[in-house]
Amino acid sequence: MTDAADLRRRTADLLAAHPPATTERLEFLRARFDVGLAWVHFPEGLGGLDAPRSLQAVVDAELEAAGAPGNDPGRIGIGLGMAAPTILRYGTDEQKQRLLRPLWTGEEVWCQLFSEPGAGSDLAALATRAVRDDGGDWIVDGQKVWTSSAHLARWAILIARTDPGLPKHRGISYFVCDMTDPGVEVRPLRQITGEAEFNEVFLTGVRIPDTQRLGEVGEGWKVARTTLMNERVAIGGARTPREGGMIGVAAADWRARPELRTHDLHQRLLKLWVEAEVARLTGERLRQQLTKGQPGPEGSGMKLAFARLAQEISGWEVEFLAEDGLTYDDWTMRRPDGVDFTGRESGYRYLRAKGNSIEGGTSEVLLNIVAERVLGLPPEPRTDKDVAWKDLPR
User: Fold this and answer.
1) What is the pLDDT of residue 233?
2) Secondary structure (3-state) at 192
3) Can you tell me the distance from the alpha carbon of 259 to that of 272, in angstroms, rounded to the nearest whole number?
4) What are residue 176's DSSP bridge partners?
């Protein structure tokens, strides 16, 4: 059985065969994947060794100490946190072999084509259609919105309606869409920060082979729930050290600017510090639970906490720094590769945090999930449960 000592030996062998100082970055990442040290809990041949998920930290620590290159998770987070677990669970052997390696190395960026202008919080109400032609391919038409990294992506995870005669949750199928195909148009959406990390995507007659379907026809909602649960863990449950992330920036501001301190601001900072530490430790427990299986609805609670804390901490920071808190480097329209909550100015953090309670599931929807699936409270009445999607009022 693979244990920590075995993983250290395998890591040492990788470093000896591919010294980070003299090995090209992509070559090293490919070699790391091939020897099973990418995701140690994944199956052998797919970047892993069927080892406990908790042992990934052993590999990561050894490689970091050796100065090995990383795969830039901030840039490829959608692939790592959402697409990969879904492909592993529902993909065919051919799909796993083709897609997982370049996903992990960052050679192919992924995005998520889920939300629509009329189906954001109520995602199952989506209207994008996929119709099967005589040759077995799917022809997709529709519009998606709030798509992070679509301007960078080669692949997308896509849900579309394949049977409008069924109730909304049952007539959906799940696909892998090639973003370079004819009929895929990506348009930037400029945000309050001035940037356009989000996009809207128009799909016009996009042809998707049936070999790029994940799961059975009509079971796309079940597949999508795997993606969504992993998404919320990825957003709200990222590993951080004590006083890491945004609370660390706020604490550093407090220590550096004693002339701005007040009793009220001190009390509020202490409260936020404790809440951030509780959230961090809860995230550690959630990651331990993940070693035993798929993520559950607890990830929704973590994402809720992340959004609330990000907004409250960034608001505290702007208030503490007074006029300096509104500083912002550049309002020029640009399309960044990712989000940097700790490496930018306080004004950027304050504005960007406003989106945290919308992206990855709105806080209102997540509160319902926690209430129903964690606390066991009665679900909200649903009058559309057994009504065909085509008959729903719009």
Assistant:
1) 67
2) coil
3) 21
4) 157
Residue from 96, 129, 306 nearest 204 by CA? 129
For the stretch 180-194, pLDDT in tens is 999 999 999 999 988
25 by Cβ neighbours in 10 Å (0-12 / 13-18 / 19+) ranks as middle
Q: Which of 108, 197, 200, 231 is flagged as catalytic?
A: 231
Buried b (16+ CB within 10 A) or exposed e, 209-234: eeebbbbebbbbbebbebbbbbbbbb
Residues 6+ apart with CB under 8 A from 91: 99, 214
| Helices and strands (DSSP H and E) totals, the chain | 12, 8
pLDDT at residue 295 in the model: 64
- HSE on the CB side for 104, CA within 13 Å? 26
Residue with tokens 């795997």: 226
For 266-302, the three-class secondary structure string (H helix, E strand, C coil) is HHHHHHHHHHHHHHHHHHHHHHHHHCCCCCCCHHHHH
Which DSSP category does 344 fall into? S
**pLDDT tens digits for 226-275?**
898 877 666 655 677 899 899 999 999 999 999 999 999 999 999 999 99
Q: Dihedral of CA 146/148/153/157: which sign?
A: negative
Q: How confident is the model at residue 199 (pLDDT cuts 50, 70, 90)?
A: very high
**Hey, which bits of 170-280 come out as E strands?**
172-178, 184-189, 198-208, 213-214
Examine the pLDDT at 1 and tell me if it is beyond 70. no
From the CB of residue 285, how many other CB atoms can be counted at a distance below 10 Å? 12
- Cα–Cα distance between 251 and 305 in angstroms, integer? 19
End-to-end CA distance of the chain: 56
> Three-state DSSP class for 263?
helix
pLDDT at 355 over 80: yes
Is 319 among the catalytic positions?
no
Please tell me whether the overall predicted TM-score, pTM, comes out greater than 0.85 for this model: yes
